[in-house]
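no rush on this but wanted to send it before i forget. theres a chain ive been looking at and ive put its sequence and its fold in token form underneath. i want to understand how the tokens follow from the sequence so walk me through it. thanks a lot i owe you, the record is right below:
>
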Amino acid sequence: MIAVPLPAHAPDLRPDLTDCPDRSDRTDSTGPASPGAAEHWAVEHRPDALGPARRAARASLDSWGVGPAAVEAVVLVVSELVTNAVRHALPPVALRLRHDRPRRRVWVEVTDGGPAAEGCGAVLPPDEHGRGLLLVASVALTHGARPQHGGSVVRWACLAAD
């Protein structure tokens, strides 16, 4: 996985901030107005793409000076959202991280090509799947999903960066 700019026709990766705890601090509904760092990656639609996605996220978070506990929480969210996209959705898959330094927030955004047809995902015993979004909810300040024009879906989470 290489950090590459997404093409101009890529889906909008900005989260819907109507449920964000920092809603009063924004200037419009398109995302945090504050300066910060951002990285985007195209993620291969394969189970073994998860390791490179986690490593890339960790490297960016470390370079931004995000605290160790927050790094672990963000990497967990990246793991869950990318796994869900690869396992249950169509390609393409993209990962985006944004660090809103002034508000001490990290945004994780995973875009996929929309839901796969039923029966296309790997069948696992119940004790090995189904808890991913519960884990995301337990560490995120807020999270959600937003359908995009053309059938793609952005799943996002906002986490504390300290």
Q: What stands out?
A: The chain is about 25% helix and 25% strand. The radius of gyration is 15 Å. Confidence is low (pLDDT under 50) at residues 1-19, 21-34, 120-127. The first helix runs from residue 50 to 63.
